[in-house]
Amino acid sequence: MRTAATVSALALATLVLAPSAVHAAPATPDSSAAPGSSAALAAGAAFSSSTAPGSSASKQADPAPSSSPSATPSAPATAADPDDLVQGTIVDTVAYGRHARQRMDVWHQADDLRRPGVFLIHGGWWSSGDKKYMTAVSRSYAELGYTVFNVNYRLSGDAAWPAQRVDVIDAIATARRHAALWSFDPDNYVVVGFSAGGHLATAVGTYKTGGLPGLKGVVGISPVVSPLTAYLDGAESLDVNKRKLREAAIRLAGGCEPAGKCARIWQSMEVPEHASRGDAPVLSVHSANEFVPPSHSVQLQDRLRQVGVEVTVLTEPGVNHSSPLYRMPGVAEKVQEWIAGKVL
Predict the structure, then answer these.
(1) What is the DSSP annotation of 15-27?
(2) With contact defined as beta carbons under 8 Å apart, do 121 and 129 qualify?
(3) Radius of gyration of the chain (CA)
(4) Total-model pTM
(5) CA angle 47, 53, 55 (to 5 degrees)
(6) Dist CA 240 CA 168 (whole Å)
(7) CA 142, CA 112: separation in Å to the nearest integer?
(8) CA torsion 68→71→77→83, rounded to 10°?
(9) Where are the beta strands (DSSP E) in the chain?
(10) 186-201 burial string, b = 16+ CB within 10 Å, else e?
């Protein structure tokens, strides 16, 4: 693995970091938690970035971000229990914007190696969920030698689309600007999203013509690739989850349905609509009979293959969705193997 230069004086002057604490209570388990026991959220003092990614290069004429990040450090938080951490791992909570949800936990090593990165995006109908439920998944990738960025983002109750995609892109841009602080190779990373987070991951992967700099692959676990499909599937369904997903997609669009003046917003939310040559390769995993069916990812597969981009859609038996699907025997290993083939 390539070595990185030491942290520059400019980077140190830009950021405010403090050593992580050495004790904390474990995080509360949740049905969406990933494999393994829950660990407490880890953090040091946080910072905010004042620079957002250049929107002029984007393919979509979406509404502008609600605000630009500030440069005011936030208060220190507690760290993960060292007994639950990989040897030598430091975990900092970093503010990449001014909103309370614009935070990410960075799992990293204090050395000069340039490690590939994994960005984790939690699910929760775009309206709930939290990065704390990705703690065990974060630890698993830290154990494999990655620098891990476990990202929170504004929920649909905080801001309508495209705020959620803007937040993930801002988090990635912040990590790339300050890569040397976290032993991170800014030109070698993947994004992994669960359910609604899978929608955000695939939306980031197709956001910019030619792909985001350094993005080597996108993984969706039960990704809601097509909110419009979710809207249509939930219209007369007896499946409570399909009906709930329909309503969640409407909330994400700011409370409006696809017809009329809201057509542009819904078109922006549709990941397959933005496929282009140079987008990152995609791995999608669905259960055969879950409420976000494989047909979501097949739509993206069809569009990306037309422009020469690799898309793999894996279908597992059963109805498990999101984290329960990821915990099925062999699924996490398949995802990890695919990621290793893209970044190493």
Answers:
(1) ----PPPS--PPP
(2) no
(3) 19
(4) 0.79
(5) 145
(6) 29
(7) 16
(8) 90
(9) 89-95, 103-109, 115-121, 147-151, 184-194, 215-221, 282-287, 311-316
(10) bebbbbbbbbbbbbbb
Q: Please give the angle made by the CA atoms of 304, 305 and 306, to the nearest 5 degrees.
A: 90
Distance CA 168, CA 50 (A): 15
Q: What is the largest CA-CA distance in the chain?
A: 60
Q: Tell me how far apart the alpha carbons of residues 88 and 203 are, in angstroms, rounded to a whole number.
A: 34
In this structure, the strands spanning 115-121 and 147-151 are parallel
State whether residue 90 is helix, strand or coil. strand
Concatenate the DSSP letters of all residues of 237-286 into one string.
-S-HHHHHHHHHHHHHTTS--SSGGGHHHHHHH-GGGG--TTPPPEEEEE
Q: Which two tokens stand for residue 255?
A: 């409370």
Q: Quote the CA–CA distance of 143 and 330 in Å, as a whole number.
A: 18
In tens digits, what is the pLDDT along the chain, a chain of 344 residues? 333 322 232 232 233 333 332 222 223 333 333 333 333 323 333 333 333 333 333 343 333 333 333 333 333 333 444 445 667 899 999 999 999 999 999 999 999 899 999 999 999 999 999 999 999 999 999 999 999 999 999 999 999 999 999 999 999 999 999 999 999 999 999 999 999 999 999 999 999 887 899 999 999 999 999 999 999 999 999 999 999 999 999 999 999 999 888 999 999 999 999 999 999 999 999 999 999 999 999 999 999 999 999 999 999 999 999 999 999 999 999 999 999 999 97
Q: How far apart are CA 293 and CA 271, in angstroms?
A: 15
- Distance (Å, whole) CA 296 – CA 232: 12
Per DSSP, the three-state class of 318 is coil
